[in-house]
Write a structure and sequence with these properties.
Layout lengths: L2 E5 L10 H15 L5 E5 L24 H19 L2 E7 L7 H10 L6 E3 L4 E3 L6 E7 L8 H4 L3 H12 L4 E7 L9 H23 L2
Parallel strand pairs: 1-2, 1-3, 3-6, 6-7
Antiparallel strand pairs: 4-5
Helix pairs in contact: 1-6
Amino acid sequence: MKILQIMCHPDYDGKHRISNILANVGKDKLREEGFKNIENLNLYDPSLHIPVMDKFMFNYEGVHLSEKEQHDKLRQKELLAQWKSAEAVFIYMPLHNFNVVSKFKDYIDNIVIVNETFKCEVESLIGLDNSDKQITFVITSGGEFDKHIQYTNLDFAVQYVRGIFGVLGIDKIKVLRVEGLDLEFNDKEQIVKEAIVDLKAWIEEFSRKNKK
């Protein structure tokens, strides 16, 4: 099984960042469970190029593409091929301003492409991606977005992930929340410990279902 691991923390090599810690725990646990084909995509790594939405994304006839846009279009094809070939995806992300981080949105714009990963019909959208693809979304946050009444209506990141992958025809989405990290009355260290236990338990369950 080919697994794509997407790391989304702006402090891309920050060893103390909870998202990065969990990503490393997750990768190690997957390997322990026998999954060897794991490809890592660190969106904020400066050596990694993620094209930003531009006219090259659209097939306008007669539009001349600059050298940069041609390069971006080739890069988009690489990202799309990588995404399509993955049978499972693990995403590790901190919440930013109540939503997904900007580089993740740029990445999504490179894989959500009409007639590639979805198609439009008269009154509906049809997903063209692998419907058996398992998405695991590990999201860290300072607040408690599934508990605190002030935050529940601002739970855009999880809604976005469920919605956008639903467009592609993927409904196997596991959300692991690591929340309340910045609340004074919470024990941050304990929250992280519990998150590691939950992540490992989920990977064990994932392994039982997907080992071939």
